[in-house]
Amino acid sequence: MLMKYFVLSFSGIPETVPISCVNRQCSSGLQAVINIAGGIRNGCYDIGLACGVESMSLGSATNPGDVSSRIMDNSKARDCLIPMGITSENVAERFGVSREKQDAFAFASQQKANAKIIKMDQPKT
């Protein structure tokens, strides 16, 4: 939970601004975006800042860091320690999604996001 205080300290955002921290190991940034988008869509606030931090890449399957030995003894629990990058490659291989398809999807996604940002930046008439 200290991460939210680091964000406030380094961003210049006043301490009076509410902040939420997502700790999900992997995909924290994605969950933060989903939370902010939902809040905006529901009318809870007009604008939000979504950030995620992960440290799963600091460990490995053979040396996951400071985790209980009980996790390492359970294959399903141990699989949860696989970093997202390796997980995505495994999923792509399993379902036959080529690197080219992934890159094309990512590019199209970025283009859509950029178009939306540009549209939001234009003055309302």
Automatic annotation (TrEMBL):
Lineage top rank: taxon: Eukaryota
A Pfam family hit: Thiolase_N
UniProt entry keywords in alphabetical sequence: Fatty acid metabolism, Lipid metabolism, Transferase
Single Gene Ontology BP annotation: phenylacetate catabolic process
Gene3D superfamilies according to UniProt: 3.40.47.10
Record has Transmembrane helix as a keyword: no
Annotated EC: 2.3.1.9
Enzyme class, first EC level, given as a word: transferase
Classification via InterPro entries: Thiolase-like, Thiolase-like_sf_Thiolase, Thiolase_acyl_enz_int_AS, Thiolase_N
PROSITE patterns on file: THIOLASE_1
Signal peptide: none
Domain Thiolase N-terminal: 11-115
A GO molecular-function descriptor: acetyl-CoA C-acetyltransferase activity
GO cellular component: a single term: peroxisome
Alphabetized PANTHER family for the sequence: 3-KETOACYL-COA THIOLASE, PEROXISOMAL
Name of the protein: acetyl-CoA C-acetyltransferase
GN (gene name): LOC103051247
